Amino acid sequence: MAAAAVYTNSVSAGGYAHAHGYGYMPLTPIASSPTLVEPPPPYTERPSIKLNISDAGPSIINAVVTDTAGRPLYTTSSNSKRTTLISSGSNTGVATVEWDRSSPRMVFRGRKMKCKEWLPLAGPETQSRLLTHGDARFTWTKRSTTGYLIPADRPGLAVARWRIKRTDELRLEIFQEALVVPGFLEAIVLSVVLLRSGRPLGDVPEGLSLGAPRFFALADVAANIR
Predict the structure, then answer these.
(1) What is the mean pLDDT of residues 135-158?
(2) Most buried of 65, 77, 87, 153, CB within 10 angstroms?
């Protein structure tokens, strides 16, 4: 009986199998391994504008709101009875807040209302506040040392945020989603002025507003207890 032929395979540098032995074996390409993990998409920074509010240490009283180039956009002027927000470009009043009563009043866009109605508490056991603009509702809430304005009725990213810098300036960042909505920029600036005024809006004791350092301390204690 004739001996059976023995074949062995080896792989060349080009990735093709070659037969050794007696007879012919076709060349078969060896497929390369497919890529299993797609690279992550590149990070894209969200378009926004950054504003600085001067002299915003314990509270915003008499301050200037500027852009990153130092150009003034708004000013606030205050005394014991009243705070006025003025547009620097047109030198016209945007809003007036009257503090000389137990429930402060404000005039904004020709409407007179209570501050606690325009910027109400988000719930009975929170110091977060609701800001309604048109048909959309947002919540000013605080995490660590930063305030965030987030959608109230749906998941979503913050449309604005603020934090206090070491120089007692407040840095306010407003994202593109808010900038394209007519009138929303002024509403956000006014809401920050109220939150950082250091004065009660008529629905919580003085010193426990969202922007007050004392509130921050109490909120952190409550979070740790829970």
Answers:
(1) 93
(2) 65
The SS3 of residue 221 is helix
Q: Rounded to whole angstroms, how far apart are CA atoms 208 and 222? A: 14
Residue bearing tokens 């402060």: 104
Query: Torsions phi, psi of 191, nearest 5?
Result: -65, -40
Beta bridge partners of 20: 8
* Nearest one of 204, 149, 202 to 178, comparing CA atoms: 149
- Tens-digit pLDDT profile for residues 22-50: 454 555 554 555 555 666 666 678 999 99
Return the pLDDT at 181. Answer: 96
- What residues contact residue 121 under an 8 Å CB cut-off, 6+ apart? 127, 128, 129, 130, 203, 204
Q: Which two tokens stand for residue 175?
A: 């994202």
The amino acid that residue 99 corresponds to is W
CA angle 87, 92, 98 (to 5 degrees): 90
- The predicted structure's pLDDT at residue 214: 38
- The CB density around residue 105, as the number of other CB atoms within 10 Å, is 18
3-class SS at 213? helix
Three-state SS string over 183-211 comes to CHHHHHHHHHHHHCCCCCCCCCCCCCCCC
> How large is the C-alpha radius of gyration of the chain?
31
